[in-house]
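Hi R.,

Here's the chain you asked about this morning:
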Amino acid sequence: MNFNYTKYSPIYYTISGVLIIASIVCLSVFGLKFGIEFTGGSNMQIEFLENRPSNEDINKSLVDFKLGDIVIQPTGQKGVILQFKGVDEAIHQQILAKINELSKSEEKSFQFIGPSVGQELKNKTQIAIVMVLLAITIYIAFAFRKVSRPVASWKYGVTSLIALFHDILIPLGVFAVLGKFYNVEITIPIIAALLTVLGFSVHDTIVIFDRIRENILRKGMGQFKENVDLSLNQTLGRSLSTVFSTLIPLFAMYFFGGETLKYFSLALIIGITSGAYSSIFIAGPLLVSWRKWDEKKF
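And here is the predicted structure, written out as tokens:
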């Protein structure tokens, strides 16, 4: 049985539109909470040898050092990660001594990142994401240059770019909310996860576009809408099996991988799910809608 995907494209656009608008509002109102890799500051990992003090007790013990907003993240059974503004070695040792007064502990690591290094890293990350998006768009437009009708090859590239923005904005919106209410920060692993989402999503979209190209070459250009629906039906099983087989280990990482991998895997889960949705319900139907808009002009 062949499902008529493009018939219900207004429903798909409405769902995506609501999610995108909500994400943009969250990003505008809450913003993103960047980690010290981007803002600069100190990162201290402590392992308590006895009982781990509460976050409130740790915060109170360090209030005299005027460290700004202290992020306290428990890890494992007795560990904790502290993030605060940059300090010199003398203050670092005083902080460590103060924590030992609460409960005997062992310092696992200490890292200081200057604000200029953090800003440079943020700029490079932004450039990397823009270059990835442009490279993907140009590649798709070039790869589909032989299928210039009934939809121009560059429109395949633009459509994939729209789907990619969809796939990135939704996870960013979620992390804006998590950053506001749960102090979840955007770190290097999360950036890596978002770049992975771009690659995963565009791969799924290219598979569908390639099947559309094959069906156009085989059946002709007359029934573009039918060719898109046929291509989506032919690739649905592959798309879903790929997504589900990827999500299973990601959910395992989220629930059992500890704090270090929790939000990295969450970014991948949200992004890959969003990417699967856009590849199936946005990219192909959008080509058909674009074709209809062009026909109305003439």
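One quick note: The chain has two domains: 6-36+117-297, 41-112.

Cheers,
M.
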